[in-house]
Amino acid sequence: xxxxxxxxxxxxxxxxxxxxxxxxxxxxxxxxxxxxxxxxxxxxxxxxxxxxxxxxxxxxxxxxxxxxxxxxxxxxxxxxxxxxxxxxxxxxxxxxxxxxxxxxxxxxxxxxxxxxxxxxxxxxxxxxxxxxxxxxxxxxxxxxxxxxxxxxxxxxxxxxxxxxxxxxxxxxxxxxxxxxxxxxxxxxxxxxxxxxxxxxxxxxxxxxxxxxxxxxxxxxxxxxxxxxxxxxxxxxxxxxxxxxxxxxxxxxxxxxxxxxxxxxxxxxxxxxxxxxxxxxxxxxxxxxxxxxxxxxxxxxxxxxxxxxxxxxxxxxxxxxxxxxxxxxxxxxxxxxxxxxxxxxxxxxxxxxxxxxxxxxxxxxxxxxxxxxxxxxxxxxxxxxxxxxxxxxxxxxxxxxxxxxxxxxxxxxxxxxxxxxx
Length: 421
Description:
This protein has two domains: 2-48 and 368-419, Roll (Urease, subunit C, domain 1); 52-354, TIM Barrel, CATH 3.20.20.140. By secondary structure, it is of the alpha/beta class. Helices cover 29% and strands 24% of the residues. The protein is built from 13 helices and 19 strands. Helix 6 (201-217) packs parallel to helix 7 and helix 7 runs parallel beside helix 9.
């Protein structure tokens, strides 16, 4: 048993000091004062207890590219950042498109990690957008269906996948991008440097098509890594016709713009690319008015050798598990005056609803004890990483707010830069 003493809990716009008793893997009691001499006491004075973050968009690189990330380093990165649950994408080698590979990875993850690791099945075989996977069987081992990294261009295939996924209680995650030409945003920087750019239409036209299909079929749809103003506007209107539509963005889209590519630093190369200041502000507004439901990292590890290549050959993608919490607190809570409850819900209770998790994402009696203790005032410099890769756009930045302790399934797994795994 663990007793968290003097922790602050977020209650609306206020913080309330509470004791939290954890028994086995559950939250047994929350009260003003709890005395129990048989417990391990953790003094949480000055710290805020939040649900462990739920990141619904993560790339593990297992199987196929373990030189960039494996389950062990993924676990350390997540724990240090206050993340307790991750949903892994299927663009691995081979793709997770069948029950056998999903079962194998589930077994491997349970053996090698203390995280709550969940999997998204590919939506089509080998993520080629042609033939739908066995949705009935794959739904037993996955929480969602997606060809993440590729957009399902065939409207008939996408429509059928939406209907079948809904039939088995799952949601389709769409990577909305109509084509994959270019390296950075098509705009002032790409023109100045004479680099092929990615047009904003590639995103919002895909968002529009997918929203229409979701509305027509009255099925759930989740839109990944939203980055442009038009997408936010389309989603806002589409939700009026189908409230089952949800969307996410990533910290880099509300923290940075295409200006970061002036020096062609590939640590700022991701897909979709960093956009304009107008887009950045639109994403922030979309988060504030609940058009965008969740923050996810799109954690995409790459080796230093890969990311040191020229901008046209370096791979897309950045890591984010270790900085998601701090970047969100710094940019949204401190700079843009979001309520703390909203910022945290975008990474906890909202993602839990999207993937239909019933007993995580909230600190509540009876729920699984996935709790992060955070110091919201702590400033820290992003110098090093527990991830096997270091391709972070937040490298060398000073952020405010840091995870201090991670409790997963009722056990302390991380505390003050020490791991217990």
